[in-house]
Structure formats: structure tokens, C-alpha cells
């Protein structure tokens, strides 16, 4: 009986500590993210603001590099830059690392410049992690279902468009994105 109570409490605790989940539907297939509000509260709040306002819908994964990452959220299907809220403080020192299947914020050389663009790590990218000499890229969640869809992105042929390289030849569009239970 005590074992059953302990197991029930452990399962309850795990479900309470689990962060928000987001279903990302793309033209290539769907995947689910679990966000880490506890360790990346500002970054999760920022990402969810774009989910809630619907502005990730019809945006594209505009930069995909095999053996590295898939980046999206900043441009529509015609490569028009999407409106962004102000930049957020870099939370890369939160203890989360750029491991395979994690999601992190893209930014410029300025560590505190992330707005709406994100990337999903296709492999462990330790060089993107925070350290004393590296401001790093803030991880704020992970793909918990459908990572094979993200991996498939990394297998698609790419091209250059304007000044952008590594653009999938066939657009990979976010057709819907929403919080789920």
C-alpha cells in the first residue's frame, strides 16, 4: 500500500512539474514541445506570446543545416520578416544545454537580442552552451514527440535565397501551433 501511495505521489509531482506543451503542425508533419518554465521563465513567456498571438502560423523554417539545427519563426512563406516584440534577456545560464531535440532562442551577436526566432538542435551542440567566456543560446524546452519530423527537415536539400543560405528548397511551413494539455 505504501508503495502505491509513493508511486502515485511521484506521478502527481512529475505531472505538476511538467511545463506547458505546444503542438507544432508543419507542412512536413507534427511535433510536440515541452517547455521549461522553471528554468527559462522569461524565454518561455516570450515564446508563448508568439504562440498565443498566432504569428508563428504560416511562418517557415528558413534555415536548416544537417547535423546542426533547424531554425524558424522569423519569416513568412514569402521571406517577409515578421513583426517582433522587444528583445529578451538571455537565459542561457539556466543550466539547460543545447542537446539533441532541445529548442533554443536564436539571436544576433548581442546576447540579449532574441525576439521570435528559435531553433531545434538536431545534435548535441555543446559550443552553443553558456560558459564563463560564452554567453550561449538559451534552451527553453525540448521535443518530446515527433522528433523524426525535425530530423527529416535536416535531410531536405537547401538553397540560397537573397542573402540567406541553407533555405529548404521546398518550404517547411508552420501551419498551426497551439498549447495543449
Describe what this molecule looks like in 3D.
The protein is of the alpha+beta class. The protein has one domain: Cyclophilin. The chain has three helices and ten strands. Strands 3-4-6-5-7-2-1-10 form an eight-stranded antiparallel beta sheet. Strands 8-9 form a two-stranded antiparallel sheet. A hairpin with a 2-residue loop joins strand 1 (21-26) and strand 2. It is globular, with a radius of gyration of 17 Å. Residues 6-16 have low confidence and may be disordered.
SSE layout and pairings?
Blueprint (H helix, E strand, L loop, with lengths): L1 H16 L3 E6 L2 E7 L5 H13 L5 E7 L3 E8 L25 E4 L12 E4 L17 E7 L1 H7 L4 E4 L2 E5 L5 E7 L1
Antiparallel strand pairs: 1-2, 1-10, 2-7, 3-4, 4-6, 5-6, 5-7, 8-9
Amino acid at each position: 500500500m505504501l508503495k502505491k501511495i509513493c508511486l502515485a505521489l511521484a506521478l502527481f509531482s512529475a505531472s505538476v512539474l511538467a511545463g506547458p506543451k505546444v503542438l507544432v503542425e508543419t507542412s512536413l508533419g507534427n511535433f510536440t514541445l515541452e517547455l521549461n518554465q522553471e528554468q527559462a521563465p522569461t524565454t518561455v513567456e516570450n515564446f508563448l506570446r508568439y504562440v498565443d498571438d498566432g504569428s508563428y502560423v504560416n511562418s517557415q523554417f528558413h534555415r536548416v543545416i544537417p547535423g546542426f539545427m533547424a531554425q524558424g519563426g522569423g519569416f513568412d512563406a514569402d521571406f517577409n520578416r515578421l513583426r517582433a516584440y522587444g528583445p529578451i534577456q538571455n537565459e542561457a545560464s539556466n543550466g539547460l544545454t543545447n542537446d539533441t531535440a532541445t529548442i533554443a532562442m536564436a539571436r544576433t551577436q548581442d546576447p540579449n537580442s532574441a525576439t521570435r526566432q528559435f531553433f531545434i538542435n538536431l545534435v548535441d551542440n555543446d559550443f552553443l552552451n553558456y560558459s564563463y567566456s560564452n554567453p550561449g543560446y538559451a534552451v527553453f524546452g525540448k521535443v518530446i514527440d515527433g522528433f523524426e519530423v525535425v530530423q527529416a527537415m535536416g535531410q531536405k536539400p537547401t538553397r540560397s535565397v537573397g542573402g540567406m543560405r541553407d533555405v529548404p528548397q521546398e518550404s517547411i511551413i508552420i501551419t498551426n501551433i497551439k498549447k495543449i494539455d
